[in-house]
Amino acid sequence: MAIKNVMVIGAGQMGEGIAQVCAQSGYNVFLNDMNEQALEKAMKNMEKRLTRAVEKERITESDKTDTLNRLHPSTKLTDAESCDLVIEAVVENMEVKTKVFSDLDKITPKHAILASNTSSLPITEIAAVTNRPEQVIGMHFMNPVPVMKLVEIIRGLQTSDETYQAIEEMTNKLSKVPVEVNDFPGFVANRVLMPMINEAIYTVYEGVSSVEDVDTVMKLGMNHPMGPLTLADFIGLDTCLYIMEVLYEGFGDSKYRPCPLLRKYVKAGWLGKKSGRGFYQYES
Ligand SMILES: CC(=O)CC(=O)SCCNC(=O)CCNC(=O)[C@H](O)C(C)(C)COP(=O)(O)OP(=O)(O)OC[C@H]1O[C@@H](n2cnc3c(N)ncnc32)[C@H](O)[C@@H]1OP(=O)(O)O
Ligand SMILES: NC(=O)C1=CN([C@@H]2O[C@H](COP(=O)(O)OP(=O)(O)OC[C@H]3O[C@@H](n4cnc5c(N)ncnc54)[C@H](OP(=O)(O)O)[C@@H]3O)[C@@H](O)[C@H]2O)C=CC1
């Protein structure tokens, strides 16, 4: 199936990045969000990054103009009626995601593929609220999307080979590297990454070391590009907590219990870089 028109739902940090790379690769993209301010901010950020790419001579001025012309901010989910693929990137919450998928199932054409950028939630459960579970799939991009090469492609129980192949082909077209994984809590990326981040938070919580020193140990000792606490702030502490909860509930194993300090920060509204405060403070 040829994918031409794509809708990305959620103009947060992931949705914005996904919309940009799709438009840069020639897809016609609706970026959908109920919040017009979030859409405006996302459009500005994408334009800024494209301008920087022109300055660095990675793309031409006309590539930038063409990309921007392919990007359409949208506040109506019904714009998905002309789309061949929808990539959902709203908050990591099953209730919110299943509501979006159930609505999309009614709006989109019969042939359309419905993908989720969920970082941990079961694709099979999301697919079950639609009448097309064979066309529902996980397409898990990494943050920051324009930079990171990996896309985890997650097969739900009923995902068809045809759907998998269409998404694998598109991932290659986006100049990303696809990796096929099965539908288990946290898939591969976050089953491995998030317990490491959670453990780093425990070392601060238990007074083993300071935030800065934990990050230094992992940066200089393990050559990680960012320390785990900087990375947690970058991902979003709410997202980190939701993922730990999915692992904890999904496996029923106490080794995945979220650190109380992580819970406390999220309750305080300290969500990391996006809210201006997490383990570190950020200028707005
Ligand atoms: C939670 C999940 O479900 C899954 C996940 O995504 S887990 C998170 C996975 N991501 C990571 O682990 C990221 C780890 N960090 C890194 O790789 C690097 O620190 C980084 C790529 C983010 C920044 O790299 P850096 O060398 O430290 O900084 P910097 O030189 O400023 O940036 C390198 C390039 O990335 C770009 N970049 C940095 N942050 C960016 C962002 N948020 N959005 C877009 N581009 C960005 C910069 O513009 C720069 O591009 P140019 O070459 O055009 O200048
Ligand atoms: N952060 C990361 O590093 C990664 C995140 N992901 C996944 O991507 C998805 C989005 O994460 P991210 O972009 O970081 O999150 P953000 O917090 O940046 O954005 C969340 C988006 O969800 C929307 N949203 C929030 N609440 C609701 C609701 N009740 N109904 C509908 N939409 C809602 C927000 O809309 P509004 O603008 O209106 O508030 C916003 O567009 C999550 O599933 C996350 O797990 C995947 C890979 C990496």
TrEMBL record:
- Determine if NAD is one of this entry's keywords: yes
Q: Its Gene Ontology biological processes?
A: fatty acid metabolic process
Q: Which SUPFAM superfamilies match?
A: 6-phosphogluconate dehydrogenase C-terminal domain-like, NAD(P)-binding Rossmann-fold domains
The protein's superkingdom reads Bacteria
Segment forming the signal sequence: none
Q: Name one GO molecular function term.
A: NAD+ binding
From the UniProt record, give the pathway where this protein acts. Answer: Lipid metabolism; butanoate metabolism
Residues that bind NAD(+): 10-15, 33, 92, 97, 119, 143, 274
Where along the sequence does the record put site: Important for catalytic activity?
A: 140
Q: Which residues form the 3-hydroxyacyl-CoA dehydrogenase C-terminal domain?
A: 186-282
Limits of the 3-hydroxyacyl-CoA dehydrogenase NAD binding domain: 5-183
Q: Note the InterPro entries from the entry.
A: 3-OHacyl-CoA_DH (IPR022694), 3-OHacyl-CoA_DH_CS (IPR006180), 3-OHacyl-CoA_DH_NAD-bd (IPR006176), 3HC_DH_C (IPR006108), 6-PGluconate_DH-like_C_sf (IPR008927), 6PGD_dom2 (IPR013328), NAD(P)-bd_dom_sf (IPR036291)
Q: Which UniProt keywords apply?
A: NAD, Oxidoreductase
Keyword NAD in the entry? The reply is yes
Protein family per UniProt:
Belongs to the 3-hydroxyacyl-CoA dehydrogenase family.
Q: What is this protein called?
A: 3-hydroxybutyryl-CoA dehydrogenase
Organism, by scientific name, is: Virgibacillus oceani
Recite the lineage of the species: Bacteria, Bacillati, Bacillota, Bacilli, Bacillales
What gene name is given for the protein in this entry?
A: hbd
